[in-house]
Amino acid sequence: MTRASVVIPVFNREGLTRRCLETILLEWPVNALEVVVVDDGSTDATRHLLARLSAEDARLRVVTQSENRGFAAACNAGADASVGEYLVFLNNDTLPHSGWLDHLVGHADAHPEAAAVGARLLFPDGTVQHAGVTIGQDRNPHHLYVGFPAEHPAVNRSGRVPIVTAACMLVRRATYFEAGGFNTAFRNGHEDVDLCLRLGELGYEIHYAAPSVVVHYESATRGRGTPEASANGRRYREEWAAKVVPSDLARFVEDGLIRVEYDDISVRLHIDPVLGTADHGHGVACNRLLRTRTQQVADLLRTAIDLLCDAAPRLSCPARDATEPMASCADPELDEAVIEAVSALHDALARRRGESIERDRPSAYRHLVGRVRGAIVEGTPPGSTVAVVSRGDQDLLDLDERIGLHFPSDPAGTWLGYHPAGSREAIGHLDDAIARGATHLAIPATSIWWLDQYAALTERLRAEHRQVPSAQACVIFELTTIDGGSR
Fold first, then answer.
1. pLDDT in the model for residue 329
2. 175-222: pLDDT as tens digits
3. Helix 364-379 vs helix 332-352: angle between axes, to the nearest 10 degrees?
4. Which domain does 464 fall in, by range?
5. Is residue 308 included in any domain, yes or no?
6. How many CB atoms neighbour CB 352 within 10 A?
7. Is residue 152 part of a domain?
């Protein structure tokens, strides 16, 4: 029985929204009934994206707001438009893992006392961003176990917590409306804290379901450290600081991260180093410096995420004007610019370490193309026809005594201008390449994500074809069956 409506509020950042929606639509959860996207007054290409996707897939519905009213109002509008027994609020700056929603629904089914259930959210590097929220000794909400390894035992213990984040939160429809939904007095911050605390006052529990995993590009859509955030913090303290009870230390003791030992004259505290350190008044300056550097790294990571998500490769063919040249969909110079920026970062780090920097070196991108071509020439015999996963860069097909084909390509051999929508389409392109005489498939390191994105294609390649030992710049498969025959 499909019972969950996924509500996704969005404001601009079309690239983030596209990736999130295509991930859900490509691997539709068993318990999903619909996806309701609330366009909260976007001014970029979001409206066109949503119009196209909703026209192609009836499981996706769109609610459009004429002006930006904030997260709470957008979520409330999506809830009003939905029909599911469960409401699952999800940020557009997320990439859900397989089974994410079904684990949330399964936990809610097994715990009828829980009005809301939250997921395990991970930063892009795989460390923990959210494993529930606790009330600290300062009576403010704090995320549990931020930065912990994703598989730490404390992170993988499902159960009751005071609060969960609405970046991925299941709420029972009836209790959501009983509580009055999200409070629009909060704007883009603390809405989830306030809702969970109000649900608690009504006698309901809040739970965390560790098996539900979602990658979260935290605050990539609306930002942090704004005047709104300060106003939300003040409102929270006015509403809740006198009512809430600190719960963090009890949780740390329960999870074995703090141990207390007693003798006749003293008390000894043992703190797991992964949780924190005891401050005896020493090293304050070092801790301040560490916090500053950590914030700088976090800001740099966020900037990188913003750029990469907005420039992410499309998983399906974008609608385009038939008169528009296909080359506009494939701009290797953009790839080169990104690689040059990364190269500049490496140079800056090298200078800080006092290392010498190679001068007058060739373009980093062109150097990569050269290494890919070298790996292909080394890994394939003369006379081979090699299909190369590319974004239309003709230089990748300049292979000594070998014929190069773009992959995927049209019958004329021109790069299609988009990536396959799923494994079935990718396998179809592979069969087409073989039919046109391709003897090998080459996947450059910059496109290695294909092996994860198109799992069935990868399974086919590894089961039926031989992987050729090659340099790190490229993965090559010989497109004959493992027993030596043609497929």
1. 36
2. 999 999 999 999 988 999 999 999 999 999 999 999 999 999 865 444
3. 110
4. 364-481
5. no
6. 8
7. yes
